[in-house]
Amino acid sequence: MKAVLAGVHLHNFLSIKAFIGKWTGIFIGLCGGLSFGRQGAFVHTSCIMAHQISSRINYFKDIANNYQVRLQMLSTAICCGTVVTFGAPIGAVLFSLELTSTYFMVGTLLKCFLGSLAAIIVYHMMHSLPIIKPPKHTEFEDIGLNHEIIFVIILGVLCSKIAILFNHILTKLIFLRVKLKNPFISNRWKWLSTISLFISIIGFPISFMHFGEKAACDIFFSNQDITHASGTLKF
Q1: Which pLDDT score is estimated for 161?
Q2: How far is 149 from 152, CA to CA, in rounded Å?
Q3: How far from 227 is each of 69, 155, 203, 207, 209, CA to CA, in Å?
Q4: Pair 117, 89: CB distance under 8 Å
C-alpha cells in the first residue's frame, strides 16, 4: 500500500481476485492454527473494498476519478483496517500518517478520524456478539524494579537478534529462489506445500505450537503461570 500511495501502479493489487485470495488465505490459515500477522491482510482488503466501491458504484465515481481524493480514501481505508485488527482508532490514524511518510495532506486527517470512529463502533458491535470472543485484557500487578528486569532486558535483546536473523535468512531464501530458477522451488504450489509440511512436522510434537493465534496471544499477555494459563485455554 505504501507503493500505491506513492503512485506506483500494481496490476491486480486492488482487484476482486486479490480480495478473494487474501480472505481465503486468512480463513484457511487461521482455521489451520497458523500464527501470522493480520494487519497487512486487513489493511489490504479494506483498501480493496474502498477501491472497488468507488470504481463500481456510480455515486462514488468522483472519488475514483480524482487522484488526490482517491489517495485520501485509501489512507482512510488503511485506518479502518488497522482499527479492526487492534481496536486502536488513534493508533490507526498515526499508522496511516506514518505509512505515507513523505507527505500527508491535512484534509486527510479528519477523514481518517471519521473512518476510525466508524470502524471502532462496528468493532465493538461485532465483539458484543456471542460467537465472537474479544481479546483478553491484561491486569498485571506492579512488580517494581528487581533483579528480574535484567533477564527481561536480556530476553528482549535475544528476541530482537533472532528476529533480525530470521529476516536475514528469509531474504536470502527469496533471492536464492530467483537466482537458482529450480523448477521445484519456482513452482509456488510445490514450495507452499513443502513449507506447510515442514511447519507441521516441527510443530506437531510441541504442545504449545497447537494453540491458535488468539490463544497464543492470551497466554503471552496473561499474568498467570504459563502452564496454568495454557490449561485454561482452548486450542
Answers
A1: 93
A2: 5
A3: 52, 19, 18, 11, 14
A4: yes
pTM passes above 0.70: no
Amino acid identity, residue 175? Answer: F
Model confidence over 168-195: pLDDT tens digits? 998 888 888 777 777 777 777 887 788 8
Structural contact between residues 50 and 75, judged by C-beta atoms closer than 8 angstroms:
no
Indicate the number of domains in the chain: 2
Positions of the chain with pLDDT under 50: 234-235
* C-alpha to C-alpha distance for 155 and 94, rounded to whole angstroms: 29
Full domain range(s) for residue 198 = 148-231
**80: exposed, middle or buried (C-beta count within 10 Å: 0-12, 13-18, 19+)?**
buried
Instruction: Please report the pLDDT score of residue 235 as a whole number.
Output: 44
Let me know whether 71 and 182 are in one domain: no
